[in-house]
Task: inverse folding
């Protein structure tokens, strides 16, 4: 798949709430995930299984989901970015609105790195 095709497929999965399916199909086995330091999740995660587990841990912190949105992708070479918003009530933290920019790198038809900026 091209970067444009990977980006379009990821966005389609995200809009359906099918994150697990997106990771299984589109992520490289040795994917790297970067998050801002000092947030609710770990800063550096490597490997498809570890990234999936981090996602499950994040989802377990959500008490109530109020809404979310994913933009269309912006593609440049082997990179693409999207914006995402998440309106949710978190256990022990109250309701929060997350707005983030997500940057992905694609090699050989798979996402090899994702970085979330918020």
Result:
């Amino acid at each position: 798949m091209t970067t444009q095709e990977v980006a379009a497929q990821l966005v389609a999965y995200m809009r359906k709430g099918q994150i697990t399916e997106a990771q299984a199909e589109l992520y490289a086995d040795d994917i790297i995930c970067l998050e801002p330091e000092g947030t609710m999740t770990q800063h550096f995660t490597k490997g498809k299984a570890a990234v999936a587990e981090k996602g499950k841990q994040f989802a377990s912190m959500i008490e109530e989901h109020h809404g979310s949105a994913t933009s269309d992708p912006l593609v440049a070479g082997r990179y693409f970015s999207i914006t995402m918003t998440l309106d949710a009530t978190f256990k022990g933290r109250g309701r929060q609105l997350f707005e983030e920019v997500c940057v992905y790198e694609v090699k050989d038809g798979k996402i090899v790195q994702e970085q979330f900026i918020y």
